[in-house]
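Key result, reporting period 2: structure in, sequence out.
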């Protein structure tokens, strides 16, 4: 199997707008670099960020691209901060790592031998998709329903979470964080008199007409026609 080609690029580091005061930063992979990755969904890469070793899972941004969360420890080792442009060299790993299975899903699988058997037989990427679909539910009751559905489907031999949009393009459920810089209010600086074009130019007094004269009716061929 050929070794994945190294992808090199530079990009700006951002701080997320929420949660406020977050210690982590993120970057959005440039479109040209993202297009060289093997999938539009999550993909684990290894490489360097400003010369520091990097191994992380890129997440889909819902637009066909990817973004990367950069923790405080890596940022400090690289000596960079939000607003800096950083250089990366990355390549997809040969084998995707195992996803962390939540305790509630682990307990449900243990109680369903048929589902557990299929779970053990599928790939690490398939297991990660199941976990992502279950944990993406925002409400507790949604999560409970998805665990029950997943176990039923796995018990019937379903190997993939067919209801999970891995790229986020269609469901719009996955996206990159919003940069804090883009939320800053725009402050308009005072303009010089020459730049104040919103005021109409003043008409010289010699060109002004009295109101009565301006309202006077016109005479056209012996007839009066009011304006």
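The corresponding designed sequence is given below.
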């Amino acid at each position: 199997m050929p070794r994945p080609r190294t992808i090199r690029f530079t990009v700006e580091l951002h701080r997320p707008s929420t949660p406020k005061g977050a210690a982590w930063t993120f970057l959005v992979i440039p479109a040209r670099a993202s297009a060289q990755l093997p999938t539009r969904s999550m993909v684990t890469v290894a490489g360097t960020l400003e010369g520091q070793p990097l191994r992380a899972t890129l997440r889909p941004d819902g637009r066909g691209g990817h973004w990367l969360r950069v923790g405080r420890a890596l940022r400090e080792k690289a000596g960079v901060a939000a607003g800096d442009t950083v250089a990366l060299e990355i390549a997809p790993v040969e084998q995707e790592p195992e996803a962390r299975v939540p305790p509630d899903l682990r307990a449900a699988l243990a109680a369903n031998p048929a589902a557990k058997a299929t779970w053990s037989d599928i790939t690490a990427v398939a297991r990660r998709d199941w976990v992502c679909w279950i944990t993406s539910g925002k409400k507790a009751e949604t999560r409970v329903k998805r665990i029950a559905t997943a176990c039923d489907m796995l018990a019937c031999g379903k190997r993939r979470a067919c209801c999970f949009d891995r790229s986020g393009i269609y469901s719009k459920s996955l996206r990159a964080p919003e940069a804090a810089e883009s939320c800053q209010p725009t402050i308009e600086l005072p303009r010089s008199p020459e730049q104040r074009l919103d005021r109409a130019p003043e008409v010289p007094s010699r060109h002004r007409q009295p109101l009565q004269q301006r309202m006077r009716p016109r005479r056209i061929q012996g007839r009066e026609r009011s304006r």
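The first helix runs from residue 31 to 34. Helices lie at 31-34, 72-78, 103-110, 113-121, 124-135, 140-155, 211-214. This case is discussed further under Risks and Mitigation.
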